[in-house]
Amino acid sequence: MQRREFLATAQRGIAASVTCGLAVPAGLASVTHPDLLATRFAAPNSQPPTTPPANPAARAVTGQPAAAPDKPAVTENSAAGEKPTAGNDAVAADGYPVKLEIIDCHTHFYDPGRPEGVPWPGKGTSLYRTVLPKDLRALTLFRPLTGTIVVEASPWVEDNAWLLALAARDPFVVGVVGNLQLGDPEFAARLKRFAADRRYRGIRVSSSAVKERVERREWREFQQLADANLALDVNGGPDTPAILARLAPQVPELRIVLNHIGNVRITAAAPPADWRAGIAAAARHPNVFCKISALVEGAARDGQSAPGELDFYRPYLDAVWDPFGDERVIYGSNWPVSERAASYSTLQQLALEYARSRGVPALRNFCAENSQRAYRWRPS
């Protein structure tokens, strides 16, 4: 199915279920935080957004001029409990746009059945099975997905090519964030090789690898990424935002994406002050984006259940969204790792309900447009 046909099908599905409800389980399986297994994921292949950022600093990163605001238009659906919004898009009675593009910017695909197997996940775990885009599409969702950016978890160089081949076969995959090692003597050559495919939209590295280079003031590999118009995903612990705040001004044209809001532990207590300070410091740089992903894993550590109520997560979401603003927060799930903490529909509803509370333009940015700003993906 071509991407255009897939989008049309997804949009018809939204229109048919605009009042979708979700029963959230009272308690979810306990889980240790999975993505701290993680200095080994990476994904996307992207392109610039059609909607320009509103603030001048963000425009400097995207290179886009300001645009005149759209005028609200009355649609034929208005009489059916829907209200008009900018850009001729109708909003249903439940507050969601009838047409809403949603790109999940953090998924992992792999096949242990290959002759060479996989280095991750390990045998004997619930994740050790073939996981492909069709499996994501088959899930029960709160809102239909229109595409995904996949993050490569394998350190094997040729698995970058494996994901690109998967994306070439399935237009649902709009981008790949690969896995290349900083410090590898072949880094530049391998980056050039994979970046020749427009679906290759960046690489993911560990925060510890970034910190080492920041402390040694080694910027060459980061500049090579920027020169190739690729993004840098960074994964690590709660000190990661502060590390990115040190990198960002050194290579201001490099688009940097903080993964999983820094893997902070989410509890009923107030967010940690040092994590909040790091988030605020990173957000001051217009080339830093934040992926709101792995929320349920962050709340499901040390044998705790991941709550299904949005208010539990709200202080942490506020702490991220307020400094980053509507144009630098990105939707991601971390599926299938996330399934050990909650169902996909639960985690998606938590993220989208919060984004919707910020307004329809913010919701659209969060679900797709900001990921285009960060990864510069384009439809297949």
Could you walk me through the main structural features you see in this protein, from its secondary elements to its overall organization?
By secondary structure, this protein is an alpha/beta fold. It has a single domain, classed as Metal-dependent hydrolases (TIM Barrel, Alpha-Beta Barrel). 35% of the residues lie in helices and 12% in strands. It contains 13 helices and ten strands. The strands form two sheets. An eight-stranded parallel beta sheet has the order 3-4-5-6-7-8-9-10. Strands 1-2 form a two-stranded antiparallel ribbon. Strand 4, helix 4 and strand 5 form a beta-alpha-beta unit. Helix 9 runs parallel beside helix 11. The protein is globular.
Q: What are the defining features of this structure?
A:
eight-stranded parallel β-sheet, 380 residues, TIM Barrel, disordered N terminus, globular, 10 strands
> Strand pairing plus helix content: what structural class?
alpha/beta
Radius of gyration: 20 Å
Helix content: 25-40%
CATH topology: TIM Barrel
**CATH superfamily descriptor:** Metal-dependent hydrolases
Straight-line N-to-C gap: 11 Å
What would the average pLDDT be, to the nearest integer?
82
- Placed side by side, the strands forming the largest sheet appear as 3-4-5-6-7-8-9-10
Kindly state the number of beta strands.
10
Q: Any idea what the shape is?
A: globular
